[in-house]
Write a structure and sequence with these properties.
The chain is of the alpha/beta class. The protein folds into 2 domains: about 150 residues, Alpha/beta knot; about 70 residues, Orthogonal Bundle (Trp Operon Repressor, Chain A). Helix 4 links the parallel strand 5 and strand 6. The structure holds S-adenosylmethionine. S-adenosylmethionine binds next to strand 5.
Length: about 250
């Protein structure tokens, strides 16, 4: 008996600029994951669910003020027609901040959806009644949710089982163990007088492993001491490694 093929993880995106997200999702790693049947990314054009000749998706805010607000009707109609996987996240600066742990969580979920806001934002009834939560990609304001959707697609998509060629690569990456990744080098061994650390050319895999771990610790201590603190500081094993490899070479 053969194993059944894994079902593609479906992610739906709602936007007034579907081509931006659709083009992005059709290329590189995400595009290949789609072709292999691992990811099923569906992008929906909110304008398809407008009822006027100008395909209007926005209107002025009640109470006055600058800018326009995305209307609830086309968003509700689009979501109801697509019946997308839940949770449906509104992308916005007020949402739960995306980090590697959340990307990992979403990558093993049964699928999810994202709604891209534009202009001054989205009629708040969409946020409170239609969406299941909010996602932010950081404490800054973008012009629209499309770039945020692409960030989420890429961060999550590459972690979906089977998407990355070398399954081990995600386990070693920055944040996966609460540390930044160790430095990487490729050929040539000497470039403009700069040498690749000798240990990486030694063929001694246990020593390479210890060196990498020590470099990851050093790098994280220098660039992101908050990550070391979040792990409860350095362990005895960490200290021993740092003694063995106190610097890159
Ligand atoms: N007036 C809103 C505010 O002050 O919070 C900002 C609206 S912004 C110009 C338009 C859209 O961009 C938002 O509705 C949201 O979908 C998206 N957006 C902006 N910043 C974002 C962020 N940090 N993360 C995710 N989406 C964001």
């Amino acid at each position: 008996m053969t194993d059944a093929a894994p079902r593609a993880m479906r992610i739906d995106v709602f936007s007034i600029f579907p081509a931006m997200v659709g083009d992005f999702a059709s290329q590189s790693l995400l595009g290949r994951a789609g072709q292999k049947g691992l990811l099923d990314i569906r992008v929906h054009d909110l304008r398809e669910h407008t009822t006027d000749v100008h395909r209007t998706v926005d209107d002025s805010p009640f109470g006055g003020g600058a800018g326009m607000v995305l209307r609830a009707e086309p968003i509700y109609a689009s979501v109801e027609a697509a019946d997308p996987p839940r949770p449906l996240f509104l992308l916005g600066p007020g949402g739960r901040r995306l980090d590697q742990a959340l990307a990992q969580e979403l990558a093993v979920s049964g699928g999810f959806s994202m709604l891209c806001g534009r202009y001054e934002g989205v009629d708040d009834r969409v946020r409170t009644e239609l969406c299941d939560g909010e996602l932010s990609i950081g404490d800054y304001v973008l012009g629209g949710g499309e770039v945020a959707a692409m960030v989420v697609l890429e961060a999550v998509g590459r972690l979906v089982p089977g998407v990355m060629g070398n399954a081990a690569s995600a386990g070693d990456e920055s944040f996966s163990h609460g540390l930044l990744e160790y430095p990487q080098f490729t050929k040539p061994a000497v470039f403009r007088g700069m040498e690749v650390p000798e240990v990486l050319r030694s063929g001694d895999h246990a020593r390479i492993e210890r060196w990498r771990r020590s470099m990851a610790l050093l790098r994280t201590m220098a660039a992101r001491p908050d990550l070391i603190e979040a792990r409860g500081g350095l362990s005895d094993a960490d200290r021993a490694l740092l003694e063995e490899f106190p610097a890159a070479d």
